[in-house]
Each structure stands twice: as C-alpha cells, then as structure tokens.
C-alpha cells in the first residue's frame, strides 16, 4: 500500500513515501520554521514562506506518485505547540496547498519517533531512542519517554550571540543543558545500563556524515554507524572554535544547520555523558516512519 508522511519540525521538513515498508522517496529540507518562536511565540513570515516553498516542491513530487496532498499524513511538533499563530498558518497551508497538518503532543511525538527510529534487527524492548530536534529533545524507551524543551534552534537563539561562540556563551549553554538533563536521570536509572542508544534527526545524522567525510549524504552508509562519546566530544570541541561559515564548508552540512549544529552536538554529548551512554547508533529514520506505521 502506497503511503506518504511529512514531519514538519522546528528546523526541518521531511517527506517519506513508502510502499509496504519499501522506501520510494525520503527527502529533507531545512526550513527553520521555529526561527524566533522561543522568544516571540509566533511563526515569522520568512519562516512560513520557506515551509510553503518546501511543501510546494513536495506536492509536485507526490503528484508523480499519484498521491494527493490531502492523502498525506502531516505532523508538526515542538514549534507548532509553542507558536500562537500555528492554527492560522496551517489553515492557510490547507487552503492553498491541500496539506492538513496535525500538531502532536510531546508524548505522541516520542511514541511515533520510537516506532519509526529502530533499524531492522533492533530490539524495541531494550533500545533507547534519542531525538534531538530544533525545539525539543525526546529520550524514548519501551517503558516510557521524557520530552524537554531543549533543542538546537531554541538554545542557539537563547545562548549563542557571537560567531564563533564565546567561552562564556558556551559554558552558559552547557550549564542550561545539564540542568535540563537532570530531568532524565531518574528515568535513566530504571533502564539497563547496557541499553543501546539510537540517535535520529539532523544533528546526529549530520555528525555521522561529517565523521565519514561523505561528499554526498548517503543513508546506507550513515544508518547503523557507531559514534562513541569521545567522537562526539571531539566534534563539539572542533565546532566550538569554527565560525558558521567554516561549519558550512564541512561535509554534508546544510547551510541553515551550520549555526545550530554546535548546540545540537552539545546536547548530544551531554546526554551521553550525564546519562552514561558510551556510544550511539545512528539512524536516518524517525518520526515520519512512525507516522506511516502508527497513525
């Protein structure tokens, strides 16, 4: 059966088209819909236009598969929960482009991400999934999940005001991340210490592509890659002294991710450090896969 799903996050808009578990199209566009939402609680005009541009492109692609926009499973996450004009924006999207978006809760986001993130052969009963988004971070296991307003875009806007980041900004950001992760510790203590950590979303997959020095993003090479806590820490330290322009020159770095990749990587490292995960398995899957399976 032919199905399609769109995951509209704080930083990215992702489209998945599949037939009976076979992937026919899996596309990502950085749209930064959450730009300014943490401070203003509103979607900004330029951000909404970027989303509509991506959705118009996706509509043309879906036409090639014979799929109407009204038939697509469309979900929006953290930024849509925060923005006061989200309902108005999504009504305009529906009227102009035909896509009907559903804003899901943090718990539903965690459930669908977990459902979609695991790679073939992984045991859902023992695995832990980490989803670092632009506006929120979820840590999910079979026994439940934790979701916090801790994201690469949200914390970059709060703490990073110079390029490259200053030491004071870096340490203030790390301290705030560490304080937020305290909310995960009790939950983590109930899990086996050996539970494998699976990482999804743009921060983790971008770091994986950089680690592999890929000239072009290749999900077959990225899926299943193992990054150690030391690997992630080294990448954080290198990103810390680079300017946004220098980060944009890194392998497979999308231009609109370059200014938030440091904060996302810092969240990843601190989760691994404070919750005692020595390594992370990279997955290019996630919420859009879960939407097709679980909605």
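-> sequence recovered:
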């Amino acid at each position: 059966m032919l199905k399609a799903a769109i995951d509209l996050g704080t930083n990215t808009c992702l489209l998945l088209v599949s037939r009976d578990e076979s992937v026919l199209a899996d596309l990502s566009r950085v749209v930064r819909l959450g730009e300014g939402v943490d401070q203003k609680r509103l979607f900004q005009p330029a951000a909404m236009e970027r989303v509509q541009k991506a959705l118009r492109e996706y509509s043309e692609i879906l036409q090639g598969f014979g799929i109407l926009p009204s038939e697509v499973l469309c979900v929006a996450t953290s930024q849509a929960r925060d923005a006061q004009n989200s309902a108005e924006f999504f009504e305009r999207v529906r009227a102009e482009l035909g896509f009907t978006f559903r804003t899901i809760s943090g718990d539903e986001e965690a459930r669908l991400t977990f459902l979609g993130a695991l790679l073939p052969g992984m045991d859902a009963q023992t695995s832990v999934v980490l989803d670092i988004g632009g506006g929120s971070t979820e840590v999910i296991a079979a026994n439940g999940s934790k979701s916090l307003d801790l994201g690469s875009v949200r914390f970059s806007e709060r703490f990073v005001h110079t390029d490259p980041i200053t030491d004071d900004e870096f340490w203030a950001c790390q301290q705030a991340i560490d304080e937020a992760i305290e909310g995960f510790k009790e939950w983590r203590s109930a899990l086996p210490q050996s539970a494998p950590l699976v990482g999804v979303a743009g921060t983790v997959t971008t770091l994986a592509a950089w680690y592999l020095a890929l000239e072009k993003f290749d999900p077959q090479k990225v899926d299943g890659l193992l990054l150690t806590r030391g690997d992630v820490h080294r990448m954080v330290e290198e990103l810390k002294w680079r300017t946004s322009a220098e980060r944009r020159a890194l392998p497979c770095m999308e231009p609109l991710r370059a200014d938030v990749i440091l904060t996302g990587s810092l969240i990843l490292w601190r989760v691994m450090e404070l919750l005692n995960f020595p390594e992370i398995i990279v997955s290019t899957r996630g919420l859009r896969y879960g939407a097709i399976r679980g909605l």
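DSSP finds 13 helices and eleven strands in the chain.
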